[in-house]
Structure formats: C-alpha cells, structure tokens
Specification:
Blueprint lengths: L8 E4 L5 H12 L3 E6 L2 H10 L3 E5 L5 H14 L5 E4 L15 H26 L5 E6 L12 H21 L4 E8 L5 H14 L3 H10 L9 H12 L10 E4 L8
Parallel strand pairs: 1-2, 1-4, 2-3, 4-5, 5-6, 6-7
Length: 258
C-alpha cells in the first residue's frame, strides 16, 4: 500500500531495538527519511550494521540537554520535521505502592512522560512548517486500566493520554495531529521480564502470569511489534489526516490487566 510518505522526515525515540526499531523500519519501507535515538549504545552500534538507511543519535530523553543535542543532530541532517514518534519508555518497578522507592517512581515518570514533553516542546515549532505533521505518543493498555503492582508505569501511561488529548486541541489549529497508541502485551524480552518480575512478586510461575494476561484479551495472544508499527505509519500518513486526539488500542482487545 502506498501511503504517500516518500521523503517524510521522521524522528523515533528509543528506535534502536524492539517496537522502536519496528516503527523505524516500517517508515523506511514507505520511503521516509528516518532518524532514531536510543540510550543503549550497544543497540545503536548494532543498528549501524543492520539498518544503513536509518541515522541515529545517542540520547536520554529524560535529560533536557541530551534532547537538545538530539534535535541539533537531527536538523543537521534534515531541513524540517514531519513526524515525531515518542516511543521511549521503561517498565518501571514491579511492587506494591508502599514498597516503591521514590527514585524508581521519579525515573519512570521522567522517561515515560517528561521525555515526551521535552521532545514535543522542541518539535512543535518545526512541525508547524510541515504539510503533514503528526505526533504519535506511546501509551499502553495500562493507560486505560488499573494495573496492580505497576503503579508508576500505569500512572505515567495514563498521563500520556492526557498529554496527547491536550496537545491535540492545542495544536489542531496548526494542522498538527496528535494521537496515542495503547499497546497490549507486545512479544519480546521486555514483556517476558515484566511477566517474570510480577510472577516473582506474587510467588507463582511466570507461565501463570502470562496465561492470565492472555485470558484478559478477546484474541488471547501477544501483539507483534510490527502491529504497532503499521498502525503508527498509517496515522502519520495522509490517509490518517482526520485522526487526532485518539488513544488507539492495539492490544488484542484487552478487557482488564492483572
């Protein structure tokens, strides 16, 4: 399908592996010019060898100076920006609220929420000059449901939806679309770690936690990173021109979280 994204200038945070890399590759397949950032130097080194069409920067999105350097490097390569994908995020601690350290709480919100603000704040003036401008923020199914033992993560992802809705209204007059994606359990090492940590906290086998999570979805399966990527690329294309202010679940129809 030709989504008319040839030459579109795209920045994807945390794009050297996992969901972010799937997003970057899907944009490249559609002819976009893609730059990613990541805090993982080893993943960036691997990306240099595997994806020659994707340029990259090292960046900690929770650090204002690091984000500024990211955008300086991006605009050294590109004359403008059309799409910002705020993908960077961490799982945060798995524990009862009273056992969560303040430092872990603050780090989760700094990366999952403040990082999106820092990137959007710099991107917005440049997006105003685009004829097809879009911001896509990664939230989660945990931004729609309560998530026991994962309060910092859930709080950050609920906040992402509020941030998205507010920005969509604020920027609508500038023709900038703003949407959030709410993935369910995405196959890969990260969800395996989440299941393992929750199982350890509860004192049950990991398979119990995984099976419980899947039974809470109508389709009873994990999501592939490519499912997230294809949805984001569609939203960023002219085909998604009238979609804004939405929190879109790509989650196999999650009914609740455990």
């Amino acid at each position: 399908m030709n989504l008319e994204l040839n030459g579109t200038r795209v920045l994807v945070t945390a794009g050297a592996s996992g969901i972010g890399l799937a997003i970057a590759r899907e944009f490249v397949r559609e002819g976009a010019q893609v730059h990613v950032c990541d805090v993982d130097a080893r993943a960036l080194a691997a990306l240099s060898a595997s994806d020659l069409d994707v340029s990259h920067s090292h960046c900690d999105v929770s650090d204002e100076a690091s984000v500024k350097r990211l955008f300086d490097e991006f605009f050294a390569r590109h004359a403008g920006l059309d799409v910002l994908v705020n993908n960077a995020g961490i799982a945060g601690p798995t524990a009862r609220c009273e056992d969560v350290a303040l430092a872990d709480w603050e780090r989760t919100l700094a990366i999952n929420l403040t990082g999106q603000f820092l990137c959007a704040r710099i991107a917005i003036p440049h997006l105003r000059a685009s004829g097809n401008a879009s911001i896509i923020n990664l939230s989660s199914a945990a931004g729609r449901f309560g998530f026991p033992l994962r309060t910092p993560y859930a709080a950050s992802k609920w906040a992402v939806i509020g941030f998205t809705k507010s920005l969509s209204i604020e920027l609508g007059g500038d023709g900038i679309r703003v949407n959030a994606i709410c993935p369910g359990s995405v196959a890969g090492p990260r969800i395996d770690s989440v299941f393992a940590n929750k199982a350890a906290t509860r004192g049950v086998p990991m398979e119990v936690v995984r099976d419980e999570a899947l039974t809470k979805t109508s389709l009873h399966r994990l999501i592939a990173p490519e499912d997230i990527a294809r949805t984001i690329v569609f939203l960023a294309s002219p085909a998604g021109a009238n979609i804004s202010g939405q929190a879109i679940g790509v989650d196999a129809d999650v009914q609740s979280l455990v």
